[in-house]
Amino acid sequence: MFPTYDVIVVGAGHAGCEAAVAAANLGSRVLLVTMNMQTIAQMSCNPAMGGVAKGQIVREIDALGGYSGIVTDRTMVQFRLLNRSKGPAMWSPRAQSDRQRFAEEWRMMLEAHPLIDFWQEMVKGLIVKDGRAQGVVTGMGLEIPGRSVVLTNGTFLNGIIHIGEKQFGGGRAGEKAATGITEQLVELGFESGRMKTGTPPRLDGRTINYEAMDLQQGDEEPGKFSYSDTPPLVDQLPCHIAYTSQEVHDTLRTGFDRSPMFNGRIQGLGPRYCPSIEDKIDRFADKDRHQLFIEPEGRNTCEVYVNGFSSSLPEDVQYKAIRKVQGLENAKMFRPGYAIEYDFFPPHQLEMSLETRLVKNLFFAGQINGTTGYEEAGCQGLMAGINAHRAVREEAPFILRRSDAYIGVLIDDLVNKGTNEPYRMFTSRAEFRILLRQDNADVRLTPLAASLGMNHLDDRLARVREKIDSGSAIEKFVRELSVEPDQVNGFLSTLDSAPITQKGKLHNILLRPHVSLSDLAVILPDLSAFLAPYDRELQEYAEITMKYEGYIQREQEMVDKMNRLEDMRLTDAFDYHQLTGLSLEAREKLSRQRPRTIGQASRISGVSPADISVLLIHAGR
């Protein structure tokens, strides 16, 4: 009934979708198995993509040939570039998406790929022979053969939904949990754990008084995520900001005795950086109010998402508290918020390729690895799909270093540091933020993806070369153009910046704080004429390269030093307990996690610089 697939992807969330297209675009024959064909790429929580650090990840996914950026651009209803008041290393794109259109667009793109097949059913187990994944077993007992398997189960593995004192099995509201896989993996020797996440209530937008809230518009000149020719965003929808109050908090507290979070029924650890509303008012009892973002779910629906009000309190308490918020006094609820508890597998059990160490050709991606967020899931799926394809062909794994991408930081953190709470990406996790900006993801990563054999990126690769050449041309022009004092001093005075006293190069003016190419083009006709053929994003890329040249060079020198450690291999069979110079903790951690390089060893929690010195001496350095 079934052919032998190169890659079988279990789960069609953000990780599963990216895994499927990555493997298929490299030439693998892929089967995407999902419990429900109607929920492919569903935005289970907030209807948004990107955000701080997450936006950089979406651009990196796009630069590597993934589809998340394209789908977002085609279906977004609002775009904002966050942290614009800070340095460019912090700039992070974020988009509100049309939830229904997002899922529909993803499914259309998947169905358009000739190498992707679909099967709707629960997977209850794996076919494992001689320590290698060789297919899956479905709930009906069907055995589907495959040369590799990627598990992207999200919150479905033994999922339990909590609303107040009620609890029931489920992987998402209205959908049943998946069983069997965890039990089999534990029998095979895997370590498992429990995590939780949550989602807010959804409201009827027709019953909301938006006039009583603060308006939050999108950018006047909206950007996009994809480096391809996706359509520009027009007719943006607004979001709104509301606030809780002491009255709201008091109402919520009346349900604490029935809260699964406070009475101990939830055992899994929740996300530190996206806590439930009851957790917020308990942990930050000194705060009189908390922000709520009222976000539309799409253009053709009145359903509204209340960002910041995630809750597992009883539905009647949620309803009463919501109606105490200014602007929501008459709000009707479509469905209450809930918490969901699910199985995950601590990611120290993975190789950097996301292949499991215990079973060859078996890959994990997404929440099964302890992460949270569409973007974190999508990038893991992309990397797992690429490496599943390469494993089947016995090719070396494709691994991104911490200096290559936020994706590299995320996977390195997971594998070498592990996580005991849902992992979320932040700019602060990346030590090379100036190199890993959102504006240069294509320059960093598209050539790498093209070298893997992703032929659909040929046009993109030509654009990258053109971008680099154009940036160099802009830089050359700015460095060579001279300006007179009377041309720029009036502008400089508006910035309280010191005037120039003699003719000088424009480049020196550009290096000053708060001076941009676009501002200078307004007062300098020659510059304006030269920049006219170049779009805004390309001009910004060139400007950042010039203004931060010294910082970029300094970070690159740090990267070169770090990479020398990354190139120093450690043998998997080495007995760390023989090195008495290592601390006891280091011997234990290194023996457990088996780092492949000294660079990886240096990032394991509990391994000190002194321990690394011992390893370097042992390695003859």
General description of the model:
This protein has 621 residues and is α+β, with helices and mostly antiparallel strands. The protein has 4 domains: 7-198 and 342-455, 3-Layer(bba) Sandwich (FAD/NAD(P)-binding domain), CATH 3.50.50.60; 202-338, Elongation Factor Tu (Ef-tu), domain 3 (Beta Barrel), CATH 2.40.30.260; 459-549, Orthogonal Bundle (Arc Repressor Mutant, subunit A), CATH 1.10.10.1800; 567-618, Orthogonal Bundle (DNA polymerase, domain 1), CATH 1.10.150. The chain is 36% helix and 17% strand. It contains 21 helices and 23 strands. Helix 1 runs parallel beside helix 9 (374-392) and helix 11 runs antiparallel to helix 12 (458-480). The radius of gyration is 26 Å and the shape is globular. The N and C termini lie far apart (57 Å).
Summarize the structure.
The protein has 621 residues and is α+β, with helices and mostly antiparallel strands.
CATH class of the largest domain: Alpha Beta
Strand content: 15-25%
Examine the secondary-structure arrangement and name the CATH architecture of the largest domain: 3-Layer(bba) Sandwich
- Report the CATH superfamily of the largest domain: FAD/NAD(P)-binding domain
How are the secondary structure elements laid out?
Blueprint: E1 7-10, H1 14-25, E2 30-34, E3 48-50, H2 54-63, H3 68-75, E4 76-82, E5 92-97, H4 99-111, E6 116-120, E7 123-129, E8 132-138, E9 143-145, E10 149-151, E11 160-163, E12 166-169, H5 181-187, E13 193-199, E14 202-204, E15 214-216, E16 239-243, H6 246-253, H7 277-283, E17 291-296, E18 303-307, H8 315-322, E19 333-335, E20 338-344, E21 362-364, H9 374-392, H10 406-417, H11 441-452, H12 458-480, E22 482-483, H13 485-494, E23 504-505, H14 506-510, H15 517-523, H16 525-531, H17 536-547, H18 549-566, H19 584-593, H20 598-602, H21 609-618
Parallel strand pairs: 1-2, 1-10, 2-6, 10-21
Antiparallel strand pairs: 3-5, 4-5, 7-8, 8-9, 11-12, 11-20, 13-20, 14-18, 14-19, 15-16, 16-17, 17-18, 22-23
